[in-house]
Amino acid sequence: MEVTQGAPFESFGLSEATMRAVRNKHYTISTPVQAGCIPPMLAGKDVIAKAPTGTGKTMAFGIPIIEHIEPGSEETEAVILAPTRELAMQAGVNPNTMQKALSELERSGLVMAQRTSGRVVTEDMDMIGEVRNNLAREQVHEFFVRMQELGYNRQEIMHLLEKEGEHE
After folding, report:
1. Tens of pLDDT along 28-63?
2. Partners of residue 121 on adjacent β-strands
């Protein structure tokens, strides 16, 4: 579904706390990506969106997450896959600094950092598994291509992998 115009934030039925935060930023009308994401996500639907940098994707996904979070819950309530470079740009830090911070959070078990070119927010563990498997397959394919560029054939690559696996 393509949404080409925004809608008033007031029309989304957001909590007073969220509306206060939106008003404090002097926002009244959402961007098209926000208008396309916020209502279905508030209704509990999974959403996949693609839009250029600077069009409001962070708020489009962030507002429904904030609206659904249950304080004190120990359950995973959302999974967010976001480009490190974009997160760094929004935070005003170097991408390497952001990557180090994400690595620390990952070691502490608070996040799972994975390179991706978009955002997916869902509680659907099957979808998350599928995305992770697709990313893994992509990485394996790229690895094989690089190794073949170095002159290794498939059998030699598999032998190296088996040998390396024995050392871990």
Report:
1. 999 999 999 999 999 988 888 888 888 998 899 889
2. 47, 80
